[in-house]
Specification:
The structure is a homodimer of 336-residue chains. The first copy, chain A, contains 13 helices and 13 strands. By secondary structure, the first copy, chain A, is α/β, with parallel strands linked by helices. A six-stranded mixed β-sheet of chain A has the order 8-7-9-10-11-13, with helices on both faces. Chain A has a five-stranded parallel β-sheet with strand order 2-1-3-4-5, sandwiched between helices. Chain A has a two-stranded parallel sheet with strand order 6-12. The mean pLDDT of chain A is 94. Chains A and B meet through helix 4, helix 5, strand 2, helix 6 and helix 12 of A and helix 4, helix 5, strand 2, helix 6 and helix 12 of B. Chain A binds a DNA duplex (16 and 16 nucleotides) through helix 2 and helix 4.
DNA sequence: CTGTTAGCGCCTTCAA
DNA sequence: TTGAAGGCGCTAACAG
């Protein structure tokens, strides 16, 4: 069914070894004549090497694994697009796995992908302050198999690890400072899960901005969310009860929930409530009042992580760049 | 670095063949004693078969390929999520490729994926009335390699092809009829590319509804779009010039563009303009006026296509189900 | 009951 | 300038 190297060799009347040499551009001692012939015949016969066989012997599969919480989520979809593009441009393809809520599933993908011979793994998991057992298993496995891994937060694990860093602290700071500059003092927060590093860092930035302005931190203004629309809906009544005039939501989806809840309470954004979001997704364009938001570019992060993993694979130096977000000012936050 | 079957065999003091038999549950004649020992040792040594080697000999890679126009696009992201889930539940993993605008890139992925040993390919390409040369190449290659393919429109090609069908005609019909029932007569359309089967089918449904109501078809009410926000923005002024009172956009993104344009013209949806969309995406929840839209469930289509390809791989019967859309009535279209 | 032998398709010495 | 031989890690016949 499939044309093999032997078929080509036979058709040329020479050995498979020579065909292999030529087709892999080993600039060896092969006469131009046979070389040309081999190339022509291979093309005519439509020969392409079986990558399973190639991988088995070379240990190179030109494949990288991408493990994300949810490929259906807009942020990770965008990221995966960028990863794929960058990989393709370097001759790699990508296998994807969504682990959902389950750390075990993530570990299962690690095993499966490594067994399939991926040369590296991009692990787009929002890390918790304390790594779960399964997380550790992932890193240990990768290390023991010599497979490099790229992650997005600087957690201390052994192995061949690359980090594509994002400055969440500055992100939180910028959002908060903007609201403070507009005259707001009671600024509510709808955070992510409290043990998630990226959420903790945003809070750190929030606190920094407050303290710079001499505003005391008030923990009753913090509502622990989970980055969903729903938590925005649920958080608003509580925070209104705390007398806030402005709100910093830790992502745009949550801001969306707040918009919807505000409509229910007959509140106007931004007149009655100023809002700053985080992620700067395309949602901004859609909302009736465009959302002021902190950039968190999935595309950039995807491309960068791909570059990082490719460098690790090639054992090239990769200069760790940490992305510093900026604030996109739109109409959802105004002077108090 | 990696534990091989030989290592396990050696540790057990037996041959690799026996280890293979036991671990693959070939219910052969192996004493319970050695069987138990093998299983234990394999586990202790943390042995997992190299899937490249397995694939090379069995021709089974437990991998399927998914080729989409753009994995960053919400519809395909959702679809791919469903594909992945269904595949995972059946022991398969998925490789993804986004071909963008380029048919050649799609073909390149076909080659690469097949060389990597995928057992089947889901080709989520909106087909044109006339297949491009590259499209044909894709199908021919797959056929010649004995790889089944699943597509989403019934185009006539040879090979092991499965079709997950969607009734776009009914979709177009439902949208149009709804508007007619509300008393509208001059109903504009922002279509997809004119040579795209799924767009042509929607138009067919549109015409059918018109003719049932005795309203003559007026081609000046048709604006050829491309499923983007932008084309919605551009189309509105033209269609307003044609005196429409209602609008059927061939997807929700385009409807979004119309919303934005309407704001610019100080028109109110639905008071000044009724709109029906297509896809029924989560955008509906976000818009200030929830969009009436025809369902086109990415998740369902993804799951179904995965089931279809898995059946083809196993050479099982797959009953071709054609999905009939329904209309989700919300607030964007009202009585004239 | 178990081990030996032979590949899968390819690459890589080493010898000619 | 080329071919033969060996092996990647595994499975599947066929022998014992």
């Amino acid at each position: 069914m499939r044309v093999t190297i032997k078929d080509v060799a036979k058709a040329c009347g020479i050995s498979a070894a020579t065909v292999s040499l030529v087709l892999n551009n080993k600039e060896c001692r092969v006469s131009d004549e046979t070389r040309a012939k081999i190339i022509k015949v291979a093309k005519d016969m439509n020969y392409r090497p079986n990558q399973l066989a190639v991988g088995l012997v070379t240990k190179k599969t030109q494949t990288i694994g991408l493990i994300v919480p949810d490929i259906g989520n807009f942020h990770f979809a965008e990221m995966s697009k960028a990863v794929e593009l960058e990989c393709r441009n370097n001759g790699y393809i990508v296998i994807v796995g969504s682990y959902g809520e389950s750390d075990e599933q993530a570990y299962a993908y690690f095993k499966e992908f490594i067994d399939k011979g991926v040369e590296g793994i991009i692990f787009a998991k929002p890390m918790l302050a304390k790594l779960s057992k399964e997380d550790k298993n992932c890193f240990e496995l990768a290390e023991s198999m010599g497979v490099p891994v790229v992650i997005f937060e600087p957690v201390s694990v052994k192995g061949d690890i690359g980090v594509v860093n994002f400055d969440y602290v500055t992100g939180g700071y910028l959002a908060t400072k903007h609201l403070i500059d507009l005259g707001h003092e009671r600024i509510g927060c709808i955070t992510g899960p409290n043990n998630m590093i990226s959420s903790m860092s945003r809070i750190e930035g929030y606190k920094k901005a407050l303290s710079e302005a001499g505003i005391p931190f008030d923990s009753s203004l913090m509502y622990e969310g989970d980055f969903t629309v729903r938590c925005g809906l649920k958080a608003l009544p509580y925070l209104l009860g705390q007398g806030i005039s402005a709100l910093f939501t830790f992502n745009d989806m949550t801001a969306l929930g707040v918009y919807k809840a505000a409509r229910q309470y007959n509140l106007k954004v931004p007149d009655d409530l100023s809002i700053v979001g985080f992620d700067d997704t395309f949602l901004n364009e859609i909302l009736e009042v465009p959302l002021t938001s902190v950039t968190h570019p999935a595309e950039f992060l995807g491309e960068e992580s791909a570059k990082c993993i490719l460098s690790l694979i090639k054992r090239e130096a990769y200069e760790e760049r940490i992305y510093t977000p900026i604030l996109m000012v739109r109409g959802s936050a105004i002077k108090k």
